[in-house]
Amino acid sequence: MAEPDDRATRRDSAGGTARDGRHGTARDGGRGTTRDGASSRREFGILLPDYLAADYNVIDDLPAGSEAAVAVVQHRDTGHVKVVKIYRQGITLPQAFIDKLETADARHVLPVQRSVYTGWASPRFIEVMDFVSEGSLAKLLSESGGGIPDRARRVLEEMTDALDYVHDRLEMVHRDIKPANILIRRQEPLDLVLADLGIASELDEVARSRRETTGSVKGTPEYQAPETLHTNDAGRARDWWALGMTMCEVLTGQHPFKDSAGNPLRDHGRIGNAIALGDIDLSIVTDDRWNLLCRGLLTHHPDDRWGASQVRSWLAGETPSVVSRRRGATPRAAGSFRFAGRSFTDPESLADHMVTSWRHATDLFTSPPECEALRTWIREDVRDNDIATNLLTPVGGSSTLADARIIAFTSHFRPGKAVFLRDTELSAADLASRFARAGDAWKGDSFLKLLQPKVVDAVVECHFNPEVDQRGQSAEYRALAQYSRYVTDIDREITSAAAAVSQACTAHVEGVDIGADVRQSMPSRIDRAQGLARALLLSPASVQEVWGDFGLLDRQRPRWFADLCAQVGDPTSTRNIDVPGSIARLALATVIADLATLYEHAWMNAKTAADQRRREAEAAAEVARYAELRAERHRVAIMAGIGAAASLVGLFVHIWLAPQFSRPDTRDWMNDAAHNLLHRPSADMQELALGLCAVALMGLALTALFSVVDINALRTVTICLCALGAICILPMVIIAVGMILMIVFGVAVVALIAVGLMSAAS
């Protein structure tokens, strides 16, 4: 393949991104322009993540497959045009795949930037790729009207190199080879590149044979190898089979599937039967060499099928051998089939009896010999070629697969009748009622345990009407298909939302963990929410009822409940693009509404208790403060009383002493000093001051005891008056100290004289 150029390119309408070769329409013929300021938001059906919306405008929608939304975007600055695919919830690639594809050779594989965006409610896998200008091989074949045999050799060379690179260098299997996934990078010389590598493989693993609500089946029957009809473990040979079908279409413009009248088969079930039985008519490839190639690539057994080496030998002009393993003739059974001790001549009666003899039916479909006998009877006696081959093959020892097989087999021959599981009639309304009644114990319900994905898919298939489009399908089908499609996503959404709630309700009020009860109750509420969500998926009437009840809830408090409720979209709206997220959060909000109320009450009770404790502490502090104030007042009163008493004593002493030293005597210095101390400026003034101090201090003592006055000011005034009283008493203190000293001095002199006399006498 040629080196890819760097110019902005465009796929055709369906391109390699729309599944099963469906062609799309570009709106208003817009190709490569930002039509009238096209937005990345809601002018179109796709919503870009923020990091793409910042640089790109959506300029066109492409047909969305069952697994992804597809759009054409244009870079605002460079004008480069890209294709963006945003996959549905739950579809992703392992990191090892992404790392391997990052270095894939662009000559063989369309370069794709892959990432996981986590900015929405659930992670989404996103691919961004070049917009291939020439479209796909499917478009070229459609425009040719009858194949392009003149370009067949170039197509074969390009695809052989591409598949050899994917298988041997990348060690991967594409799993979805078809003209719609083969893009044309250049017309002359023809340059082809493979698209959808990697994600096709992953989708085949997680969604194979699962019918979605669009009514389409994953994969394209015309390109499916026989070994892929009954197993997920199909290897590289499946890609070579798909290439063989593609080459047949390139050579002739049609598929090699015809009915007994020679008309092309359109029914997918009959095409699958033809593939399984090897009924492929290659006579439409009239050229012997090309017929040999198609027979080699479309060999029934994968071990005998051609691969890269045989195709290259064929291209070199050699004639590799074609191995054909034809099955031996199946022994013809009698005109009746024995089941559960009875003989049946028509499959309808057999199917009716299987419904009421489930254990015997399980034994039949787990027994290879009995399945072989059943297949022989159906094919050769009943001559029913419309039944899928896999319905006539054993399922091993799995009871779940046996249940699914019995449902599918009996429904094929009982169209329009009720579907049963283990002798119990199955309907969406009954299942919804069972889930609603079971509450958080639905996982332990013996019947609901039987609703494994394979069983649900079989029930969905029973109600599918291939004659009408999605809007024409029955309400029963739509409800069951919605359950099958979304139940896993809903469980994941509920678990994620519940984890966010548990993390949010961790508030402590004054040391009290008020969210403990919510967190402890959450596991059972998750189970209850999952059961309710299943009921909502199965019953539109329940959705309306629960949505109405949700509108009556107090959704403002607490904060974590308000946040959860704010994320609940209207599940009844046709514009809702996140149905599983809306139903999941609606169910969770409904079942934990009482916990939100209890949490709010616990918060209020804890707050009230904390406020009560605070008020009690403040009251105790006030009592202590008042007691301290009273003690301080007592101390001030005592100080004032002592000061008043001292002043009174000083007053009386002054009144007694003042007359004793009424006149100055220069001959007696002590008398003169005492006179000066007691009469400066005058004795009356000193006595008046002492009297006033005594009266004031007594008044302060009474004030401290019986009046409410600022204690600090009262203490200051008391200290000042005590100091004034001390100053007034100071002269008498000095006189007293002087007299004491004179007495002590006199005693000392007398003592010395006495000692001297005693010494002299001795």
Features:
762 residues; alpha+beta; elongated; 13 strands; single chain; two-stranded antiparallel sheet; disordered N terminus
Structure in words:
By secondary structure, the chain is α+β, with helices and mostly antiparallel strands. Among the domains are: 480-601, no CATH class; 629-761, no CATH class. It is 52% helix and 8% strand. The chain has 24 helices and 13 strands. It has helices spanning 50-53, 95-102, 137-144, 152-169, 199-207, 237-252, 268-277, 288-297, 308-315, 347-356, 358-365, 368-382, 399-413, 428-438, 453-463, 475-504, 516-538, 540-551, 559-566, 579-591, 593-660, 669-678, 683-706, 711-761; strands spanning 56-62, 68-75, 81-87, 112-117, 124-130, 182-186, 191-194, 337-339, 342-344, 419-421, 424-426, 508-509, 512-513. The chain is elongated and about 170 Å long.
Write the layout of secondary structure elements.
Elements: H1 50-53, E1 56-62, E2 68-75, E3 81-87, H2 95-102, E4 112-117, E5 124-130, H3 137-144, H4 152-169, E6 182-186, E7 191-194, H5 199-207, H6 237-252, H7 268-277, H8 288-297, H9 308-315, E8 337-339, E9 342-344, H10 347-356, H11 358-365, H12 368-382, H13 399-413, E10 419-421, E11 424-426, H14 428-438, H15 453-463, H16 475-504, E12 508-509, E13 512-513, H17 516-538, H18 540-551, H19 559-566, H20 579-591, H21 593-660, H22 669-678, H23 683-706, H24 711-761
Antiparallel strand pairs: 1-2, 2-3, 3-5, 4-5, 6-7, 8-9, 10-11, 12-13
